[in-house]
Every structure is written in structure tokens, then in C-alpha cells.
Amino acid sequence: MSLNACKTLIRTSIAWSRIFSKGDELEPNEKGLQFYDNLFDECLKYGIEPLVTISHYETPLHLSREYDGWVNRKMIGFYERYVRTIFNRYKNKVKYWLTFNEINSILEQPFISGGISTPKEKLSKQDLYQAVHHEFVASALAVKVGHEINPDFKIGCMVIAMPIYPLTPDPKDVIQVMNADHKNTFFADVHARGSYPSYIKRYLKENGINIHFEPGDEEILKHTVDFISFSYYQSSCETADPAKQIKGEGNLMGGVPNPHLKASEWGWQIDPQGLRYIMNVLYDRYQKPLFIVENGLGAIDQLITDKNGEKTVEDDYRIDYLKQHLIQVVEAIQDGVELMGYTTWGCIDLVSATTAQLKKRYGFIYVDRHDDGTGTLERYRKKSFYWYKDVIKSNGGSLFEK
Fold this sequence. Notes:
By secondary structure, the protein is of the alpha/beta class.
């Protein structure tokens, strides 16, 4: 069997500071705009459609230092100017857009995700959730503006999707899961439904948080996304037992390790079936198309010379990881989930955002560069490169070959 035929897409991002170097200028940088013209033209020449993230963990540093990032409401105006600029410039070259990368990560990583320069330990919940609100308004404004500029635009949110299971059947553990899960569903709820859910209003009230809404904010939030995109790497557990609340190694969003699952070298729980599960949860909840825009395995790869004298990486572990996850994607589609597409993280080795390491490699292409700065930057195709090429060529049919 195979997946339904679909377009060839590549996920990429526009660096805000290439377009507005400080972020608060009135006029964009023409050389930066031309850079992306060249990129998109090259993609389209080969029949590859760009899927573009507008803000991907790269808030201009000036906006962080001068305004404390998204804590400051002025960021909405700066973002709108940036968005209008790129939407108008690329309206005939890019159809698929994501407003913010892994927007729910701001709760755990306020600087990386929200450009907030106030140290996390000194950042109040009031300021943190006010920053979240500013991003919500900006995201909804991007949807509104985008649909005005080109009604054919498809604009989505992008969240970290991480299934959370109760560590035991104890009802207290189940309630603990519900409360933890609300921190994630909150972000997709606002994007997909256009308003703050009741459970988060309770949380805000109980924590003395009073979100300031400017006139018109509620109306802007009603401009909901066309689809839900997400990254998927792992699942976790929760428990109400304080003695067992030991955060798993590498778990960006918290959580207790699942004793039934193996983990990557960085402690991320490997759970292919969790992908099918979360796809069903998201689709049942929102009835909007889904797009898996990140999924992959960070691992330490060993560059070798094969029997043909070619340098490569025998990364069967990565092949197995991706194969098992893609099979679960097919299962979810058969369950009735509407899926727009799937893009891995990532096609080529790069610096990992969570650890700032090069040795944590995700790509199908090995880059000869190391954490200490040594290396030639030469590139070599891994075994997974050829395997994934066959997956694409066969429209997924090779996944089921014995």
C-alpha cells in the first residue's frame, strides 16, 4: 500500500533579522528579501513548494534587548510590519505559512521561543502569559492579513505535540495528566477556536494572572488558522505522587519517563504509536487538517568508509525510527485523520537548538563539523538518505515491503 500522492514540499524559515535587521525599522532590507526570492525561485524551478515558518526561534536580538521580546505589546506591530512585507513580496511564490515555531515552548524556554531577555527565574507568570497573549494576537493578525493579501494562503499554527500518559491508573494521576495537557492544548485551542478556553481562565484566576486585552483583541483572535501543524519527537508520563515526579532527561516540556519505552541517547522517549494517538486527538478536537512538520531522531553518528570507498553513516537506527513513525502515520490516516503532509527534522545535520550541539545529528546528510569547531564542512549521504529517497519515490509503498 502507499500514501495518497501529494506535492513535494520543503519546510524552511525566513529569518526576521534578514528582512528587518533590528526588527523595529520602518523599511525592509532589500538584499534579505532578494535572498528568499532566490531560494523560493530555485525550489519552484524543481517543483518543490515551500512551507515557510515566519518566526522560528530567531526574534531579532535588538527586540529582545530593547523591548524584552514578546512581553512588550509593541512586538505585535513590529511582527505585523514584517508579516505584511513578506506576504506581499512572496504572495505568488509561497502558499503555506506557519506563524510561530513550537509556540507552546515559550512556557519552558521564554528566551529561545519568545525573545524574552528577563531571566526565566525572574520572569513572573503575569509577564509570561501576557507575552503569550501578544503572540496569539500577532498570530491571528497574520492569518487575517494573509487571507486579505492572498485568499489562497494556507496559514497554520505550529505546536509541540507530546502525548502525556498517566504513570498509573490512579485517578489522581489521570487528573495530573489533564492539568499538564491543558498547558499544551491551550495554545492550539486559541489558534483553532479563536478564544481562551475555560480551563485556562481558571488557571489564570487561581494564579493571580490578569491578561490585559486591548480593544479589538477578542475580534482578532477569531481569525483562526487553516490547519494545525506540529512537531513530534516523544511522549511522557505524569503522576500525582511527589516521590515519582522525576523529570525525564532531555524532556523540554517536562514529564516523567515511561517505563515501557526506550529512549534516545538524549533521553527522549521513542513512541511511534504516540504519533498515531496524538494525530487522532488533535483531529478529533479541532476537525482541521494536520501537518507533521518535524519528526526525527537526534543521534551520535559515526562516519565510515564503505566497501565502495565512499564515506557514509550506517544509521539503521534512524531508518527504523522513521519507518515505525511513518507506519503509524498511515494508521492515523486510515483512522480518518486528514493529513496535509510530513516533513522530517531535518534533511541535513545542523546545530541542535535544545543542546547547541552538532554531535546530536538528525539529518540524512552528514556534515563534517564538530562541537569544537573542527571539520571540513564536507557533506556525505547517510544510509537513511537512500532509504528515504525510496520512501518518497514509492509514495510510502516501500515502508511495507518485507
